[in-house]
């Protein structure tokens, strides 16, 4: 049969057609009034999308670049920082802090779980300069309690800055960053905003901007102060990734349209969409006898599913790719082979979700060589969708 | 939830991304060596795709333009012709023959059925100049027996030319036109070839080319002899639809790739794909208690499903569009309101098909206001797919 190339990975995610068109047709030079107008508008839209009054910076880099920028701009060597880690991306915060010679405090939760707020509170001494955490841990499908963590940081941390990697979180989980007091939030283009990889963005609080003046970690390309100064004039400090910015502008237009003219409403719609897709997928997986990897704190961004014992997740990933051209993700780090991940970030709809669940039934039958009750996963997903839609009608009525 | 715009109509069909890219980036003038090379290659590829040694002509028109060209080039006013009609598109042949003052013989089958070959044979007197028929009748989802009809024409019709509208048939049903003795076969870009509407094509036998020299129906834009002369030099008689031809070239490349380097194998793969999608859809519809409209001779191109009594198909079409942004087709002609149609022509895969079936379950629940056994249609489709794939493995082994 024909097999369309389909991404079900937690980034890159499926591209928005309007963003593809905008990207393909963009060819302006970046030092022009037209581009300045585009960048200014896109930064303003991003700000509205994130739901913040803080200045937003756009970088030509992957999300990791923006994570590094947070570390280098906000700490000096020897500064004490607190890393909250429960997966591969938590470990990336740790590795970055080590690379820039921070003094490390760490709260660890097992892969698939989230942090004990009590333990976070205990480690949050007033001398902690930065707290690093993920909104959703893409390697495990767990969602962390950013509101709860922010409350602790604001009450106990005094001058601590809270830096949240929301690369897979923005547009898949609710974040009210100004209200909660999040100092830096980081996003990436290839996630809920439906654009190819290559852009990262940060919303940065005044407290964090002030911190940068006194820090002494080496930085050049990622010197956020330079970018802030340039952005005020609709410029970037270095050559911007122009076509990706055109794509991002088109994606934000789509989100605004989805929100009936309001970008925040559009973001809420994206989150609700991911929640439905995720709940359908969780119900289907369980109906097929699979175990969720993060049952206590599942993110809407993605669903991590444990593989039955004796199986390698790689075989499931391979079977999806070979028979359906559908790309799901293997586990990462210590979970490689032990789980696989189906993403719901951004541009997915009901048909995509039902399709991948139907494919999963065939994949399981092929890989486990055990009989699968065809339709069992699909039926569970249908019931979730039916209930969600009838609940939505009741709310709307 | 997000809802992607999705076509499940028997034309236009979902666009091939590589064709969209080729179309968007094409800007050459048509009187250039580059364009002549593109047209020459595309015509050669079309010939291979159709599986014919006959010359192929490409027109900037819809499929109906090519139907009209067949009538005006192959008949003179007063010529006796035989129209085989079992639906809206059969009636189009009748209307065209009347418009150009042919003397009409007609074999009619009820909507949803196909012709009695006996009756066709009886009407096929040696003075019939042309026999007009559809390979698949898009208004009813019926498949006609072109091989059987061609055999009759070749044995009884003497100088009769057999003209087959295969606009939805090419790439969804097996047609061996040179072997069977089909004189003219007509296709359109917006069907199995996954390109937007705007191009029609015809493969024309030597017998038919010779006929054109003696016919006296008025024609100018659709004078096929002019196009043949131009095509021999990589030209078209009038301004060609250049970007669509670029798209068609890319689509044929895709079909060749699908056929591992062979366009005929690629066409067979397209047909097999449509057959699986159609069988999944038929099984699902029946499992949901719906009646097929053309159960005795179902086409793989599309599935026509009768609506339960007391319901208007328009309500089903509207519900698909309103709740899933999925466009299925209402009945046409006398069947408007009585059936709806889900297409399988061209660029569909397993996930699309399962998705539309899942959507159908919700649509039926909403429109009939009767309980639907969620998953019943999906389970039936899954069983079809499982069986088809295991049969294919046995054949492959």
Count of DSSP helices of chain A? 14
Give the percentage of residues in beta strands of chain A: 15-25%
- Quote the average pLDDT of chain A: 96
CATH class placement of the largest domain in chain A = Alpha Beta
Order of strands in the sheet with the most strands of chain A?
Answer: 2-10-9-8-5-3-4
CA radius of gyration of chain A is: 21 Å
CATH topology of the largest domain in chain A, by name, is Aspartate Aminotransferase, domain 2
Q: Span between N and C termini of chain A?
A: 44 Å
- Helices and strands of chain A, in order, run as EHHEHEHEHEEEHEHEEHHHHEEHEEEHH
What structural class do you assign from the helix and strand content of chain A?
alpha/beta
Largest interface: A-B, 45 and 45 residues
Number of domains of chain A: 2
Quaternary organization: homodimer
Architecture per CATH nomenclature, i.e. the level-2 architecture of the largest domain in chain A: 3-Layer(aba) Sandwich
Query: Which overall shape of chain A is indicated by the principal axes computed on the Cα atoms?
Result: globular
Which stretches of chain A of 5+ consecutive residues score pLDDT under 50?
none
- CATH superfamily grouping of the largest domain in chain A: Type I PLP-dependent aspartate aminotransferase-like (Major domain)
Number of strands of chain A: 15
Q: Summarize the amount of helix of chain A as a percent range.
A: 40-55%
